[in-house]
Design a protein that fits this description.
mainly alpha
């Protein structure tokens, strides 16, 4: 099972109301239109989730998916550190015209 594909699918459903609405009414057609090619195991998992959440509103399901993704990922990914001259690497080049 490809967790990355399932995460992407859940993320799209949590953030794209049109996609979620289409997926809830025609799952296989929506997946095909959006380029998702799930394995039988993955499709079964998504279909099962659809059955278990059928009584939820689209908004409630989107929030549940979003919360689940956040919990699964733990804390949000760290932002990349901007390279800096402080603390490592060669010394800064001298200023033009010499030290001041």
């Amino acid at each position: 099972m490809r967790e990355k594909v399932l995460r992407e699918l859940a993320s799209r459903a949590a953030t794209d109301a049109g996609f979620l609405k289409q997926a809830r009414s025609d799952l296989e057609g929506t997946l095909a239109r959006f380029g998702y090619d799930l394995t039988l195991e993955e499709l079964g998992l998504v279909e099962d989730l659809g059955r278990r959440t059928a009584g939820m509103s689209d908004g409630a399901l989107a929030r549940a998916l979003s919360d689940g993704l956040e919990r699964r990922a733990g804390s949000p990914p760290a932002r990349p550190i901007t390279p800096s001259w402080r603390g490592s690497g060669p010394a800064r080049p001298a200023r033009p015209g010499g030290p001041r």
